[in-house]
């Protein structure tokens, strides 16, 4: 009887040790060895560092959509991305969405590492609550006139502010947004006194629109939308190497308006 008790005790001990040895190892996913990897940082509108974890990074134009989430160091790896060129979208509640275009992932069997740390900024409180587009004849510097569009934007903030910056985005379809637009213009505004609601008018001729990269044919229907914006973040374009500014918009857009391309 003693021998049997000793045997049962040893058997139970071995079983317990086996469970402890496997504890924490079950359900652990291996680190991807292929895909797209990078690092992000997060700041508020005063450039103060914020937690980096929990940012979702999505590879657009994949089916199903491939995503990953940053850890507390701001690092992510999106595994098993097919070879190709993609746009990446970085999102987290409370932050402006950041869009990185032209990410080349040429070899499916390796990890493509993004060349720099990308900054996400707290979503600004300023919003574009209204937008109108009116065709006019604008006076040129030489005294003549040319067809142009007056864009009038209404902007609101939670608290009075001197600056009411916004971005106009242009496209050729009614679903134009900061993610789909083919061109944009960042408009800096200000006033002699702080205010919670303001209006801004910006006039653009065909030459102005062409200079911003919007090349829709004259006479065709085009579309515009406005977003309030706060502090921008700088990054290097992956194709040209030029330093660009991502304007970190408030994520609630103005109504989309249509206009006839001058």
Automatic annotation (TrEMBL):
Pfam families: CarboxypepD_reg
UniProt entry tagged with the keyword Hydrolase: no
Coiled-coil region: none
Signal sequence extent: 1-18
The organism's place on the tree of life at top rank: Bacteria
The entry's keywords: Signal
Keyword Signal: yes
UniProt protein name: Carboxypeptidase regulatory-like domain-containing protein
